[in-house]
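Side project, low priority. Logging it here so it doesn't get lost.
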Amino acid sequence: FERVVPMNQTFDKSNGYTGLFHFHFWQFGHWYDVVVDDLLPFNRKTRQPWCSWNRQEPNEFWVSLIEKAYAKLNGGYRNLIGGAPIEAFT
């Protein structure tokens, strides 16, 4: 997990929060560093994210941010096809 999500990132403004997050993905034999901002797509009516999110911990954002980074690596959300979380971590 720490290879994909560098542990030195935080939402704490007093500890260097910049609104940017790095993720590392292994794809086609190479590691890629993908940087995304903290803006996430959401439904204006329900205030729920359009992307993946943790329903039990709605203030936990790593799932949404990692999906955003993976979508960026692959050319956008429309290029992602649904699947099981275990497949994503393989």
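Brief comment: DSSP finds two helices and two strands in the chain.
Revisit when time allows.
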